[in-house]
Amino acid sequence: MSTKENALSIFALGGLNEIGKNMYAIEYSNDIVIIDCGNKFPDASLLGIDLIIPDMAYLVENKDKVSALIVTHGHEDHIGGIPFFLKKLNVPVYATRFTLGLIEIKLKEHKLLRESELVEINSNSKLKIGEMNVSFFKVTHSIPDCLGVIFHTPEGNIVHTGDFKFDLTPANNEHADIHKMAEIGKEGVLLLLSESTNAERPGLTPSEQMVGEHVEATFMKADRKVIVSTFASNISRVQQVVNAAHKTNRKLALLGRSMVNVVAVAIERGYLTVPDGMLIAPHEINEMAPEKVAILCTGSQGEPLAALARLSTGNFRGVDILPEDTVIIAAGPIPGNERNVTSIVDNLFALGAKVIYGSGSTSGMHVSGHGYQEDLKLMLTLMKPKYFIPIHGEFRMLHHHRLLAESVGVEKGNTFIINNGDVVEIEDGIARQTRTVPVGNTYVDGGDVGNIGEYVLRDRKQLSEDGMIMIILTISKAERKLMAEPETISRGFTDQDFSELRKNINELTVNTVNELQEENRNSRNVMKKQIKKSIREYVYTHTKKNPMIVPILIEI
Amino acid sequence: MSTKENALSIFALGGLNEIGKNMYAIEYSNDIVIIDCGNKFPDASLLGIDLIIPDMAYLVENKDKVSALIVTHGHEDHIGGIPFFLKKLNVPVYATRFTLGLIEIKLKEHKLLRESELVEINSNSKLKIGEMNVSFFKVTHSIPDCLGVIFHTPEGNIVHTGDFKFDLTPANNEHADIHKMAEIGKEGVLLLLSESTNAERPGLTPSEQMVGEHVEATFMKADRKVIVSTFASNISRVQQVVNAAHKTNRKLALLGRSMVNVVAVAIERGYLTVPDGMLIAPHEINEMAPEKVAILCTGSQGEPLAALARLSTGNFRGVDILPEDTVIIAAGPIPGNERNVTSIVDNLFALGAKVIYGSGSTSGMHVSGHGYQEDLKLMLTLMKPKYFIPIHGEFRMLHHHRLLAESVGVEKGNTFIINNGDVVEIEDGIARQTRTVPVGNTYVDGGDVGNIGEYVLRDRKQLSEDGMIMIILTISKAERKLMAEPETISRGFTDQDFSELRKNINELTVNTVNELQEENRNSRNVMKKQIKKSIREYVYTHTKKNPMIVPILIEI
């Protein structure tokens, strides 16, 4: 790599031109500091893939320079890649108390907790990493204990916002450090990296308190069970549900593994207050009068195996949704999840429940954790950066964020819309886009990390669309002659009796082998290739389908 | 079937508890009249399926009774199943002039046009089918020439609304027959079937004219090319684009097969007026000054092979989107298509275009063709039905539509929320839900219609997630002994070198065969079953993956 000695480099290993797998890096002299290490969930085209994490080859190659991983908050798109990161790089992880709680759950699952070096920080912590001093500021978001990060470098101050909105009446009363942000801005910010998720949306994000008011009003009106589904990590929202249940004299049951786990961490670490004796076990629900029970559950995104989906189809053992129960889906559907959520809503209505659903603006039961345009402009105004890199978003979001920056005074030409891997270097106060570092998607498929590539996915696509036909041929090694009738097997191709087609495929195979035999073109590879070709064409002509054709030659 | 002589039966073969494949039936005495015959597009879980159409077994079984297919309008979810229907049932098809134009395109593709009996009707037509008189009324929707249908039966009047909104200022000046609806209502409606698509949305649908105003304003401001993507069948919207282009002195090019085909039908049949000499061929675009050109194209739903997607990636031969061009996506994304659309928006912004996108309420470039709650209430108020069946919608939509009906006076208990196949019978003025008729989804997969079922889909799912491992064994017929090393092949499983795993699989196979041999449990089936089992377990333990295991036994 052509990095200059002492140049300050900024780049992303993930998070640009995508939503998910956030991972940013600040490199100065002999140190690389990583900010966040998230995962991303695959879209439907990535068949069989469980997770996507950033390709970390560059870091592994520069192992000795990687000094720290700083984590801004505990959402999956910021912590989901950490176990895979720590398997390759033994580096201290800095995060707040709540964030560490969630990271620990993950490391336990991967049996990595013991050997990992986890360092608790808070917004007043100060770190020295190589020649950089690092400090922090609190931001408000949809999970507790979130940080923005300031790198005080010899070149100047670099600020990373983390994920944020400006909630002036946060439900947990933990305010953002607006004064600290103003101070940093006054001191001078050379470069700001700010998140762009809602850069397309005009206005200011509504306060989380709005959700609390709607939840409480709904609890007040309900005269049977109330079931609330939300993100387990949104502890402010969970707290507001707890409060509403308490106010209406209800006990509370928790359903779903992540709800149980995360609430336990939140209570234990002091982020959530639940009155003594309020929590009950699921099996106790049926023993109580319905107007005395509330349920908090996972599955607000329509995940087919989560608690809400199972409740909606009567498949949650021991817990039933009954007519006149109230179900609140206190979360907007993340793009791509709409159909899963609405099919659950259909099922809940069919059970006779009252269902409150929809985006936050229609139901009042959700607000975004990501700042809208006015929030973003406020951050830019406070920080007054010379240079700006919009991060954490797809291209149109980054694009809109640039326009916002320019509207509040960032000079045209001083915003860098870059890709993962593009490096912005700063030297003598001047930023330039220079080299690139290798980046990419690493696919996690079961225990397979990084071994799934283009070929496998192409095969899976073909298999998923039209299945496969195998033709098994036994030929004699010496004379290259068929020793038996070919055998044809299919999977995922048709449920129809295809004996007719099979007969023709076998005939075609025999003819092909005989022809090749006559022409003396009877090597293993030529035979396979030729059989594949003729059968593919035959099958397509007769069925308009294109299954994978696998000729298997047994030579005896 | 237990139908009583002269009972009036109403049921759906598709369209209830789903969006798509609309097909309703009115059966009286010796006649079954079908209303619409649509298709539905598969969701991602139906691997390899191209289309879904209603299972028509009941109609085939009662072939002699099926007297007519009446088509309310030309959208795919109302006409897409017609070719498959006509292959099984030779029945006259009644539709308006524009609708017939679209049906003819379809029948030509299926080489069915010549033998089909297509009968043109309009809103003043009157048909006599068996003992039923059938008349029609015009409704406004997002495609020209739409009908509602009235069945005058000895039991009373049955009304089917078709798809509708109340647009009081329709862009094509073709008003709905509100007076006729009022008359029918006054005469008396025994049963109303009304569409429910937007029953969840409060208010009144905005007028199509709103889109025209926004389109025109955008054309006025644009100083380079303007590209508009919309549904080809929304001729009112196409007309408004034509008008805006004309007003700003632009020529117009059409891109995308369905845009070219449908616009041709619309011009030829008098539904669209394009000034002489205005249309240009795609290759002429580059010869003209950019401010003199507009483009109308397909692909507003993000379809990966349609014109807009190809334009956005620079893959439309001869046509380029250049910086400062304006792209209008004049259509809201249908649920499920959001991500495809936004990825096109990202690409367009990256090309430097100004992009106007989003739901209609944010961009002003789309209004729904389906009535909101106030539209639905107006229809119910005009018709004053005794009985009501909400149709054309998922459960929550039908549920909300019932509440709307009750709010304007339909008696509680007189609304039937039914499933496809549930029959409502009316006798002596009393409606009851009685028998069911067989219904279902017929999958179209290439040339395969109805042969794809549960097994194939289950196999495709497994293949798509973890691929497959084949183990080929050659054993001697007599001694049941292995005649060679087993051979292991995989597809869609891993891109990793899996020689280690393969070696172990082969060893395991040999061991399994030897054990079975010793135990004398060596029949073909036992061997295959046992090998499958041991390899499945081994592979899962070592990779956390569950590929399809296919043992192939060659006996020699």
List the helices and strands and how they pair.
The structure is a homodimer of 556-residue chains.
Chain A (H helix, E strand, L loop, with lengths): L7 E7 L8 E6 L2 E5 L15 E4 L2 H5 L4 E5 L5 H4 L2 H7 L4 E3 L1 H13 L8 E3 L5 E4 L2 E8 L6 E8 L2 E5 L17 H10 L3 E5 L13 H13 L4 E4 L5 H13 L3 E5 L1 H12 L10 E2 L12 E5 L9 H6 L13 E4 L8 H13 L3 E3 L3 H4 L9 H11 L3 E5 L3 H13 L14 E6 L2 E7 L4 E5 L2 E2 L4 H13 L1 E8 L11 E5 L7 H21 L4 H20 L4 E8 L1
Helix pairs in contact in A: 4-8, 5-12, 6-7, 12-13, 15-16
Account of the 3D structure:
Chains A, B: An RNase that has 5'-3' exonuclease and possibly endonuclease activity. Involved in maturation of rRNA and in some organisms also mRNA maturation and/or decay. Chains A, B: It is an enzyme of class 3 (hydrolase). Chains A, B: Its cofactor is Ca(2+); Zn(2+). Chains A, B: Its EC number is 3.1.-.-. Two copies of one chain form a homodimer. By secondary structure, chain A is α/β, with parallel strands linked by helices. Chain A has three domains: 277 residues, Ribonuclease Z/Hydroxyacylglutathione hydrolase-like (Metallo-beta-lactamase, Chain A, 4-Layer Sandwich); 155 residues, Rossmann fold; 103 residues, Ubiquitin-like (UB roll), CATH 3.10.20. The first copy, chain A, contains 16 helices and 26 strands. In chain A, the strands form five sheets. Chain A has an eight-stranded mixed sheet. Chain A has a six-stranded mixed sheet with strand order 8-9-10-11-12-19, covered by helices on one side. In chain A, helix 5 packs across helix 12, helix 12 packs across helix 13 and helix 15 runs antiparallel to helix 16. The two termini of chain A are 54 Å apart.
